[in-house]
Design brief:
Helices cover 43% and strands 20% of the residues. With 283 residues, it is of the alpha/beta class. It has a 6-stranded parallel β-sheet with strand order 6-11-10-9-8-7. Strands 3-5-1-12 form a 4-stranded antiparallel β-sheet, with helices on one face. The chain has a two-stranded antiparallel ribbon with strand order 2-4. The two termini are 32 Å apart. The mean pLDDT is 96.
Amino acid sequence: MNSISMQTNADALILSALREDITSEDITTNAVMPHFQLGEVELICKEDGVIAGLKVFQRVFLLLDEKTECSFSCRDGERVKKGEKLGRVRGDIRVLLSGERTALNFLQRMSGIASYTRTIADLLQGSGTKLLDTRKTTPNMRIFEKYAVRVGGGHNHRYNLSDGVLLKDNHISAAGGVREAVRMAREYAPFVCKIEVEVENLAMLREALEAGADIIMLDNMSIEQMKEAVRLTAGRAQTECSGNVTKENVAKLVDIGVNYISSGALTHSAPILDLSLKNLHAV
């Protein structure tokens, strides 16, 4: 995430998170620190993982006070170790105290997603299959969570409903069948837009291929069914494996031969990476 993208797309979301935490004032901080005092606090890693979201972490403090200074000893995408000092934040102690939780919430969440993604991406390394995320993201956190997936070595599926056509079971039911759904999508969508169809069995796969789908999502099929689906597709469309993919079962999917494996778990089930701000002191 470059600085321009972060400021134009993320600032409003960061400010919303700050307003959620500070509706009128930080009573505790104002009680113990009524006046300006320059201070410094250390960012400490409390477990091994992959760091992601340092610029978002920094932006929280800058939006509270543009004079706040952050320095880091690591960059997004790097592996970090338990006990490692990752950086320092220097500024008005009132800002450091008031922004601490919001900044850590972003950084811990994003780093947890990057860490979980890296675990699965490593299992797929060398297979030729790309790991994708989904739209199963936390409301208003999508820009941050999908960025964290990329930092962890994954790839983004469509960002939102305006990005591409994905005909799922209910769309197909609404249209009256796979063939009709694909036809209608072709007529409506821009010609540069690919058409992806979710199929649950080989009969639907054949229908999607005959209708000219660009991508076939193999949803909750058995490994044997997916292997047969890849054989039947024979390069006429790209294939995506989907449905309850986690770090515990992804190794079983490596040899199927699909182009993509998508996993909602990357964003909806990744635990946070434990980080903290410690050793606050006046300077």
